[in-house]
Amino acid sequence: MKIGILAVQGDFEAHAAMLANLGVATVEVRTVEDLAGCDGLILPGGESTTQLQFLQEEGLYDAVKQFAADGGAIFGTCAGAILLAREVKNPGQASLGLLDMTVLRNAYGRQLASDVFFGPSKLTDVPIEMVFIRAPIIESAGSGVEVLAEYEGKPVLVQKGNVMAATFHPELTEDNTVHKHFLELAGPNRSTAPR
Fold first, then answer.
1. One of 129, 171, 179, 181 is an active-site residue; which one?
2. What is the pTM of this model?
3. Could you read off the pLDDT of 15-69 as tens digits, one per residue?
């Protein structure tokens, strides 16, 4: 298995370290060619407008949409979740529109990651660790978008088919639950849920 990680800015190295600890090979994605042969793609945190501009300029915008349409697993964290949303507010911006959800940018958490929170999830019986850094809030999730975890009554981890988004940064914790779930989506026994 090989997982691509959009390597423009943000915490892509932390995702790579988490996956390395799980014994999974990664590749830094900066071109369409880098995406070839990947089983999954992570869109990390950072600044969503910068990442969106990069995707558009490098031809990755359409390539990522096609990757998802072809069944490739995609996981967006924080800014990556914003890129996956159908609608973005505060302020509005274009996005990939791969998940039927509305997000409000920069709505929760501080600029620096110093606090770890815990919330219930459908992935495990124990609360999962969550770090929020100027995180978006998922205001609404459309039909077929499953809420996998919540914090303070709001969705913070959602999935539809092979596309998953977290408003928090699981790569900045010791908890690998979320990454393990993503690897199940990207692995040989990929989810056959409708996209």
1. 171
2. 0.91
3. 999 999 999 999 999 999 999 999 999 999 988 989 999 999 999 999 999 999 9
Q: Domain 2-186, what fold? A: Rossmann fold (3.40.50)
Contact 149, 156 (CB under 8 A): yes
131-165 burial by CB neighbour count: b if 16+ within 10 A, else e?
A: bbbbbbbbbebeeebebbbbbeeebbbbbbbbbbb
| C-beta separation of 103 from 85 below 8 A | yes
Give the distance from CA 176 to its chain's centroid. 14
d(CA 111, CA 191): 35
Query: Is-catalytic flag, 78?
Result: yes
Residue of 15, 38, 169, 181 with catalytic role: 169
Domain ranges of the chain: 2-186
Q: Name the DSSP letter for residue 127.
A: P
Look at residues 113, 66, 105, 112 and name the one whose alpha carbon lies nearest to residue 83.
105
